[in-house]
Amino acid sequence: MAAGRIRAGIGGWTFEPWRGVFYPAGLKQADELSYAASHLTAIEINGTYYSTFKPDSWAKWRASTPDGFKFAVKASRFCTNRRELADMGESMQKFLGQGISELGDRLGPILWQFMGAKKFDPVDFEGFLKLLPDKLDGLPLTHVLEPRHASFQTPEFIALARKYNATVCLADHGSYPLIADVTGPVVYARLQTGSDDIETAYEAKALDLWTERFKAYAAGGRPADLPAVSSEEAPTTPRDVYAFVIHEGKVRAPAAAMALIARAG
To answer: How many helices (H) and strands (E) does the chain have?
Structure first.
């Protein structure tokens, strides 16, 4: 049984400090996405958290990337930053209806990110999960949940995510909960403890360790050194892995992502 694919990338592609560091000096800004997509295997679009875009923008982004490349898309804050998550239906329709399906086969997971003050409410959260569609204009959708409050570190949340086939984000962060349980069809990691003082954001030893963890996930298991919240393990099934390097400063994020890609083979 073949292992899933490990993809690594960054958050966004328009970032002035990358010019002359990741992007070659003199590269046109209009060509930055194509350049990034030729060196990375995924990009997390963060601008959608704050704004909507026109369908032709999504179509242009698709055309700027090679076969096999994937975009993860961060859902609008109007969907997740609210008192009652189960009331987000109208905002969700606006977010999903902006032209995302123009990405076609470049569309990867949708990331639903919750504020650090948002606590786990099983009833409201299940109401939210019930709203998430399986498809968008015929394209299958994969949903990723990124909670940032410690109350989500409970087997009840893990069971709920599995019930609705949603992936819980693996957050490498100083204060957000690290949840290593496998709950959905993919594994989605956000590496946020890197440093711009290191050429590859993470030391080689740390990159080696994360690569081995991602290989364990891709093969259908789970890394033994990361404790699970739930005592129940997911079925052993190969899964694609998405790893995004998004540390503070993020100048060295592209180098870290490329180092992970090289290690993953």
So the answer is: 8, 11
pLDDT band at 238 (very low <50, low <70, confident <90, very high): very high
CA distance to 187, 230, 247, per residue, from 222 (Å): 10, 13, 24
Q: Is 125 contained in some domain?
A: yes
Residue type, 175: S
**Residue 90: inside a domain:** yes
Query: What's the pLDDT tens digit per position in 130-167?
Result: 999 999 999 999 999 999 999 999 999 999 999 999 99
Q: pLDDT-derived band of residue 2, with 50, 70 and 90 as boundaries? A: confident
Tokens describing residue 50: 């704050």
Residue 1 in any domain: the answer is no
Say how far apart CA 147 and CA 137 lie, in whole Å.
27
Three-state secondary structure call for residue 7? strand
